[in-house]
Amino acid sequence: MASIYWLAAVAFVAFFIRRLFVVPSGLRHLPRVPILPLLKSYLSMEPEDVRIRNLILPFADDRQEGVVLVWVLGRWMVHILDQQVRRVQDNLTRLDMTPSHKIARQMSDDLALYPKEKPPNDSLLWHLIGNTNILVSNATRWKKQSRLINDAINLQMPAEQFVALAEKVRTLLGEGSSTVRWDEFAQRFAVDALGTTVFGHDFEALKEQSMFVREYNGVMSGIADPIYLIAPFLEHILPRKTLLRRIDALTEQFVALLKAKQASPGDDMMSYMLRDPEMSQKELRDNMILLFISGHDTSAGALSTLFYFLGTHPDIQRRAREEIAAVVGKAEFTADNLGANSLPYLNACIRESLRINTPISYVVPRMSTADAQLGKYAIPAGTSITVDIYAIHHTENFWSSPHAFKPERFEQESLKSWVPFALGPRQCPARNFAMYEQRALAAVLLREYEWELPSGSKHSEKIQNAFSPFALTVPHELQLTFRKL
């Protein structure tokens, strides 16, 4: 009897190994990044940028491929890198000069052939986020939500609120010199910016550590267990009941915020969305959680990255400060003088930081609804496909010295391959919001402080990001030393 159970267990494991790692027959013609180094990378909890830089980009570069197959957390996924292909003709190597974003644009623009992929049922991340928000919805639901969220975000740019929160950060930094965990400051600023402008709720994260945010961070850390990420079927075999209860409790806190907003609406973005009778409670909840994650994680990562690069390039920091002195002087900051056209060099610094350490490495995948053609490769129906933003931003065919921080490139080079907010109709609706948020905090602190990495920083050679299973590229344990001017 024991041998029967043993054989059954072996057969069960073999079935799931085959399900996890064997390449579907319709994808075997695609150039495939070796799986063993990818597994080692996940198990050692390497950050996403390291995995792309060390494994995916070299593979694509060696073969001059714009489309590669990558094993990603339990499934095979097509990554679009949009490399220009060197072709041999008449004994000469020539470069195909098609637009750098051609394949990514082709996929991103065709919403009927490449709708957003349905989130996997065994992922606890999607158990938290839900499946009816603007990120993963399609067709009529997406159009409705896209219109509503775009209108809500564009009602009024809350630049003055960003400035007020930046002043709070300035007060916390104080006079003289201080060394702080800047990634935590950036996170606290991002949470309060999100809360006051989007939710109409002050989390007071800059005042004291928010229990809400602490619980959110704990839940996300629990979800990121690499064993469960590599073998998501374990959620059915060995369910993490305690973590599930924490996720459900956190979701209920979001529901409580939503109910409070329904009882007492204001002039924030969430109140605007609540006025639409076509939005269901589940859609509102799922979008509220999505907006929190986007505003919390990606904004904090972008702010940490920007301040890191300004801190490690004193000449660039000085030039940005001089621009603020010339444009704004000692006047109050406003939506007008914080605009991209008013501060073009600071805006170039932000664009470059978003390029070199993009907060989202690759977009939520699409799925082909029919057999299709991407570049030179046939793609069967039902294939997961994503645009690899980090890879596109670090391809030498598109960017000179792609690993160097050079804001001036945005005064000279084409922006066709700059895609931090994705491409096409489904690019991030909050992109202008995010750029204003970064300009406001940077401008306020540039006028008052200079900063640098402290001695012995682990980021002294290059920026060190946290491990993230969600394609995030966010600096980890980043300390900066601020000195009052």
Map the helices and strands.
Layout: H1 2-21, H2 35-43, H3 48-63, E1 67-72, E2 75-80, E3 86-89, E4 92-95, H4 102-109, H5 124-129, H6 139-154, H7 159-173, E5 177-181, H8 182-199, H9 211-223, H10 226-230, H11 234-237, H12 241-263, H13 269-274, H14 281-312, H15 314-327, H16 344-356, E6 366-367, E7 372-374, E8 377-379, E9 384-387, H17 389-393, H18 431-448, E10 449-452, E11 479-484
Helix pairs in contact: 7-8, 7-18, 8-14, 9-12, 12-14, 14-16, 14-18
Q: Could you please describe the fold and organization of this structure?
A:
By secondary structure, the chain is α+β, with helices and mostly antiparallel strands. It is 50% helix and 10% strand. The protein has 18 helices and eleven strands. It has helices at 2-21, 35-43, 48-63, 102-109, 124-129, 139-154, 159-173, 182-199, 211-223, 226-230, 234-237, 241-263, 269-274, 281-312, 314-327, 344-356, 389-393, 431-448; strands spanning 67-72, 75-80, 86-89, 92-95, 177-181, 366-367, 372-374, 377-379, 384-387, 449-452, 479-484. It has a four-stranded mixed β-sheet with strand order 1-2-9-6. Strands 5-11-10 form a three-stranded antiparallel β-sheet. Strand 7 and strand 8 form a beta hairpin. Helix 9 packs antiparallel against helix 12 (241-263) and helix 12 crosses helix 14. The longest helix has 32 residues, at 281-312. The termini are far apart. Its main location: membrane. It comes from Mycena venus. Heme binds at residue 428. This is Cytochrome P450. Belongs to the cytochrome P450 family.
